[in-house]
């Protein structure tokens, strides 16, 4: 996959997506400052969310529309989305600001009008949220735009994921990346179930990532080690922010740590093969090798008591111990002298 000329695969550093979500606090200048800070700490992309309260739900206080438990218990959906949404009239300015900061920006659309707005801004990609993976008409509409799609799979059954992937592939010519996700806010590390990354990759033949709602970097770093090529995390401008998503969002400093640590985790994977690391070379001399422990005159035979397998490693490897026994020394040797091809008869 490639977004804005950036390759997203295991051969390249992890693609780190900073999700702004509701952490702009209803303030455009704060949203722009957040983008600036995220760009400065080296994220690959900024992601926002494109909806209005009316495109998400009804303005109703009926029981069905009240959050029953969790972080937002007791609030109506309409109230929650009114506080959290990013106004449509901000989008062009946010896209332009991100471009000026040198960082990619794209969004999660929650209905067709949002897709149309993002198309008018020439979005380079789309993210499909876990909650919308079952909205197949929306999935198909997004796919029809033939842009790269990143799709989260939180809460989805295998059948639902298969239906969404089939819908993407049948309705557009799109590169697809699937995000494993635990749709809990915040999520706990022990629920991460990162082995699902392997299933998603093998089942659908796609690159995989992690949309991470935990409050630490353990799951993200483990996912990178398991082959994830992208990580998405919510972030906030200030540690003391108290918006709808703040409790599971990283501070700017924590976001910077995520970028650094994910890159280090990717580097640590290396490539397959048992080649010696450059940093190991100087320690080769501390491996065991063969040394004389008795003095011998030229022509004498070497007995078991005359040599030992010890450190350092300037002599012949220990595997030649038995082969050396009974051979003659070709010169006078002394204790502490390495056994080499120059001081023993031909093997």
Automatic annotation (TrEMBL):
Q: Name one GO biological process term.
A: carbohydrate biosynthetic process
SUPFAM superfamilies xref list: AFP III-like domain, Aldolase
* Superkingdom in the source lineage: Bacteria
Q: Please name one Pfam family that this protein belongs to.
A: SAF
Protein name, per record:
N-acetylneuraminate synthase
Question: A GO molecular-function term, please?
Answer: N-acylneuraminate-9-phosphate synthase activity
* Domain AFP-like per the UniProt entry, residue ranges: 289-347
SMART domains listed in its UniProt record? SAF (SM00858)
């Amino acid at each position: 996959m490639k977004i804005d000329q950036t390759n997203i695969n295991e051969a390249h550093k992890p693609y780190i997506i900073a999700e702004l979500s509701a952490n702009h606090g209803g303030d455009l200048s704060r949203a722009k400052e957040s983008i600036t800070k995220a760009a400065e700490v080296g994220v690959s992309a900024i992601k926002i969310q494109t909806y209005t309260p009316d495109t998400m739900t009804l303005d109703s206080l009926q029981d069905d529309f009240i959050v029953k438990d969790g972080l937002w218990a007791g609030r109506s959906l309409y109230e929650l989305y009114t506080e959290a949404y990013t106004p449509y009239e901000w989008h062009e300015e946010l896209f332009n600001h991100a471009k000026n900061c040198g960082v990619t920006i794209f969004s999660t659309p929650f209905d067709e009008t949002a897709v149309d707005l993002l198309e008018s801004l020439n979005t380079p990609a789309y993210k499909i949220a876990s909650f919308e993976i079952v909205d197949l008409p929306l999935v198909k509409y997004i796919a029809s735009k033939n842009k790269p799609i990143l799709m989260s799979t939180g809460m989805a059954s295998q059948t639902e994921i298969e239906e969404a992937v089939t819908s993407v592939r049948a309705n557009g010519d799109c590169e697809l990346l699937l995000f494993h996700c635990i749709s809990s806010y915040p999520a706990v590390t022990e629920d991460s179930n990162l082995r699902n990354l392997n299933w998603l990759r093998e089942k659908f033949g796609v690159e995989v990532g992690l949309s991470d709602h935990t409050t630490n970097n353990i799951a993200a770093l483990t996912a990178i080690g398991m082959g994830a090529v992208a990580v998405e995390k919510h972030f906030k401008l200030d540690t003391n922010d108290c918006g709808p998503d703040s409790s599971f969002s990283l501070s700017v400093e924590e976001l910077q740590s995520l970028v650094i640590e994910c890159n280090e985790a990717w580097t640590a994977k290396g490539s397959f093969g048992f080649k010696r690391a450059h940093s190991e070379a100087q320690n080769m001399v501390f491996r065991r090798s063969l040394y004389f422990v008795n003095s011998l005159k030229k022509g004498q035979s070497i007995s078991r008591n005359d040599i030992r397998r010890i450190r350092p490693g300037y002599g012949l490897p220990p595997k030649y111990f038995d082969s050396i026994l009974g051979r003659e020394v070709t010169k006078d040797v002394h204790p502490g002298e390495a056994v080499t091809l120059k001081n023993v008869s031909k093997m």
